[in-house]
Each structure stands twice: as structure tokens, then as C-alpha cells.
Specification:
Layout (H helix, E strand, L loop, with lengths): L12 H5 L1 H35 L9 H59 L37
Helix pairs in contact: 2-3
Amino acid sequence: MNSNNDPNYAPLRDVAQSPEATARYLADVQRVLLDIGKNLETLAHETRVHLRDTHVEGDRWYHARMRAMPVEKALGNVLKNLNNLTEGLEKSAYKRRAHDEAVVNTAKGRKEKELEKQRKKNPPMLQTAPKPPQQGGQNQNSGYSGPTSIYDLGRESA
């Protein structure tokens, strides 16, 4: 449906809208970068061997090594940056998924807060407990209606 003639066409819009598609895309990019990294490691090793074997007449044993160090350092920095980039791609895929989960949880949390706020504003009416029957005298049917202490017995027990 997307075409290059469409003025609203954005090639990665569909990928950006889905965390699964974003993760797949970033994994593909990471895979390509790791392949490039393997080639760069091989290049760095071969460059190191060649540069350290290049001697000029009058060199001492360490001169070739000293001349090779800036080149080795530059290639090492490229490899380090490449490794950081691949780690960053992986991290961003996780963060993208976490963002969608946070959005879903935020919506649920807001609904729960709103319900709690409504409960606080309008607390549910509690049913009143049934009133105990008015006792004009002692109720003989209930075992709990008699005196509660031996001092309440009075002359009845004598």
C-alpha cells in the first residue's frame, strides 16, 4: 500500500509502530554489524601483522611497533564503537518493548486510580446492623442474656 509517490510515505513508520517489528529490524541491523565486526577484526589483525613486520633500515626493534600503534589504536576504537553500537541496538529493542508495556500499565493504573477516587468520594453505604430486641425483662431463650458477673447475681443465687 505504501509507495514512493505517496507524500505521507515513511519507510520505517510501520516498523516504529510495533515493538515486535522494531525488535526484528534492530536484530537484522545488529546481525549485519556483527558480520562487519568480524571482518574488521580480521582486518585489524592482518594490518597489525603487516605494519609490525614493516621495518626501515636503521630501525631499532620497537620502531615498527611504535609506528603501527596509532593505526592499531584507530582500528581498535572502531571495533569498540561497533560493539557499543550493537549493545545499544539490543538495549533499544528492550526499551521499545518496555515502553509499550508502560503505556498499557499507565492506562490500567489511571483507570484504577479513577475508580479509587470515585470510591473515596462516594463511599458505599454500609448496611446497619440489626437492632437488638428491647428487653423489658430477662430473655429466658438466650443463654447470653443473664448476669455477666457473680456480683450481678444479687439474691437470685442464694
